[in-house]
Amino acid sequence: MGELARTPLHALHVELGAKMVPFAGYEMPVQYGVGVMGEHLHTRARAGLFDVSHMGQVILSGASWEAVALAFEALVPVDVLGLGDGRQRYGFFTNEAGGIEDDLMFARRGQDLLVVVNAACKAADIDHMRANLKGVSIDVLEDRALLALQGPAAGDVLAGLDARAGAMRFMDVADLTLGGIAVWASRSGYTGEDGFEISVPADQADALARLLLEQEDVMPIGLGARDSLRLEAGLCLYGNDIDSGTDPVSAGLRWAIQKARRAGGAREGGFPGAETVLERLANGTDTLRVGLLPQGRAPMREGVQIFDAETDGAVVGRVTSGGFGPTVGGPVAMGHVQSTHAVTGTALWGEVRGKRLPVRIADLPFVAANFKR
Amino acid sequence: MKFTEEHEWLREEDGEMVVGITIHAAEQLGDVVFVELPDEGTTVSKDDEVVVIESVKAASDILAPVDGEITEVNEALTDNPGMVNEDPQGEAWFFRMKITDASQMDGFMDEAAYRKFIE
Lengths: 373, 119
Fold this sequence. Notes:
The structure holds two protein chains of two kinds.
Chain A: H1 10-15, E1 19-23, E2 26-31, H2 35-45, E3 47-51, E4 56-61, H3 65-73, E5 88-94, E6 100-109, E7 112-117, H4 122-132, E8 137-140, E9 144-150, H5 154-161, H6 164-167, E10 173-178, E11 181-186, E12 195-201, H7 202-214, E13 218-220, H8 223-232, H9 274-283, E14 287-294, E15 305-307, E16 315-325, E17 330-338, E18 347-352, E19 355-362
Parallel strand pairs in A: 3-13
Antiparallel strand pairs in A: 1-2, 3-9, 4-7, 4-8, 5-6, 6-7, 9-12, 10-11, 11-12, 14-17, 14-19, 15-16, 15-18, 16-17, 18-19
Helix pairs in contact in A: 2-8
Chain B: E1 2-3, E2 8-13, E3 16-21, H1 23-29, E4 32-36, E5 43-44, E6 49-55, E7 59-63, E8 68-73, H2 76-79, H3 83-86, E9 95-99, H4 111-118
Antiparallel strand pairs in B: 1-2, 2-3, 3-9, 4-6, 5-8, 6-7, 8-9
């Protein structure tokens, strides 16, 4: 691959002493001086600032909101039309086999849809939208950065800069002015904490990040803690926990498919792989994504095979994300297991370096969400 | 104290070698959350994987610096892996070993040379 891209905050990361690593074609901060553990715990206690500018931001516009929403519904099994103005929702692109091509957030801004997609998938997602969205113009926002402010203090920090932020609830989107900088904010994130994602013009991103870091309680947080936070929150990492071969039902994402798109709904089906997804919604799946709580101290990381017995037995699943949960204070993981074993409390074994170690099926999330509903 | 290019240190004590990792290595690993130690009495060859260390981010192997026999392991690390970050060149030693061939230590660095090595 060619040279790594940089976000508008690259110089700030270096100045703050970040350890920079390649991630999805970008040079990104994996941690700052405090380290993953300290950054994780700070985010859960106060507020952390994340650079997520590597993600793709795309505006879809058309003749009317209905035209844009219905066009987008042809690519996602989610109720887009029913989304109120100033509201955001989680969704995913499906393929003809019912697998997930990428997961995403989309927000209604008046007549337009703002879609935020994963960095690693954004080129493919944009091609997919260009090829398949009828009567919709697609504007890829190359000139905007994306920051996330996450943690229990995030609401007060942002409300201190623009009182309108304080009135936003979970999944609301609004225009704010932060220290004279006009931004688009959503009250959402990927840590299980209350917080905001803030889209800002690239040339003002550095000034906004510095303003936020000046606020008491705010610390810069790298991708390392972002991963441990989202794992404790039970949220999927695309490419690990969900991929093009995983359908949303076995991925435990049936909650994201609203009634309007299900069998008997107002706009039943009508997305790629609908037949498969609707059949699985009705009849269940052979495997399910579950929480896995190792009973010892050893982390069970991606790729660890799950067995139904301590000796011999059969492989009944695989860890898709795993590591250490700083808030839990021990190892946590998630994975896909055969549905017959996907019952909370079921005792299984994960094979780590040739040894079968006990693990139990656990409810997700590992750390309760702290959203402002 | 002697240092290896694998960022381990060896300290002679009562005719045996006490082995751990350097402050530099501990900083690179980040927060250590799990340590798996070998069984006492295990015979090891140079470069055998003898200890597994897991940080929040990833797992790493610690290699036997020389041939020999593991005579004691630091069980305290099992319950308190964070010691590796707090005192890597003191309290957080990994194991003691009886070494078979002292000449295998000929290439090891003293502290000044190790400092240069990590610069």
